[in-house]
UniProtKB/TrEMBL annotation:
GO MF terms, alphabetically ordered: deaminase activity
Cleavable signal peptide: 1-25
Keyword Signal carried by entry: yes
Transmembrane segments: none
Record protein name field: RidA family protein
Pfam family, one: Ribonuc_L-PSP
InterPro entries: RutC-like_sf, YjgF/YER057c/UK114
Lineage of producing organism: Bacteria, Bacillati, Actinomycetota, Actinomycetes, Micrococcales
UniProt keyword terms in alphabetical order: Signal
Length: 212
């Protein structure tokens, strides 16, 4: 990551963990320097960070919650299908295994990228993420697997040890990611009863750290 320090923890926590350049002091395992943000990541191919420590003098940006853009104006589309990104899926036709949540997740993350760019940032600068998912019509629960496939198109798709790009899933097909990005934000995902826009299944909010 170009703009922040990163500590990779590849062992299980015991009574104490040796973190490079840190020490246990005043009962604290680690405290970031005022001008650094440090993501704690377990292993070389983890999907998310265990957490992130942000120093008091770090400049950071918090996006608004963003859902997918209405891009699919085809005749007879449902409220949920309206948010399929037609620049990725021409005509709103989803390939084998791609779910509505997955398509909407790609759409929402594309909007996040546009939002970050306006702030002078990129996906690589994201250190934390909050995700709100609604169950698709006719389903009893959120499509978390579909969301995760969308997420891996933009985040956590390199091997941190080797730098190699990892293949990701698009529905039932293995592909190269849409955006190659080593960043693993800390993240939570919640299922909620209703998102604010009819047809939305995904809404995302991120925090990003400005390069030094």
């Amino acid at each position: 990551m170009k703009n922040r320090s990163k500590v990779v923890l590849a062992v299980a926590l015991t009574a104490a963990v040796a973190v490079p350049g840190t020490a246990v002091a005043a009962g604290k395992l680690f405290e970031p320097k005022p001008t650094e943000a440090v993501s704690f990541i377990t292993g070389d191919t983890a999907q998310i960070a265990d957490g992130v420590a942000i120093g008091k003098n770090v400049s950071w940006y918090k996006s608004s919650g963003l859902g997918p853009s209405a891009m699919n104006s085809g005749a007879g589309v449902t409220a949920e299908q309206r948010y399929i990104p037609t620049d990725v899926f021409p005509g709103g036709v989803l390939p084998a295994g791609v779910t509505i949540t997955e398509a909407q997740g790609i759409n929402a993350l594309m909007r996040i990228g546009e939002n970050l760019e306006k702030a002078g940032l990129s996906y690589d600068d994201v250190v934390s993420m909050r995700v709100f998912l609604q169950n698709p019509e006719g389903e009893e629960k959120m499509d978390f697997a579909g969301w995760n496939r969308a997420y891996r198109q933009f985040f956590a798709n390199t091997n941190l040890a080797t730098g190699a790009t990892l293949d990701v899933q698009l529905g039932s097909t293995t592909t190269k990611p849409m955006v190659v990005n080593p960043a693993r934000p800390s993240r939570f995902a919640l299922e909620i009863e209703n998102l604010p826009v009819n047809g939305w299944l995904v809404e995302v909010e991120v925090d990003a750290v400005y390069p030094k």
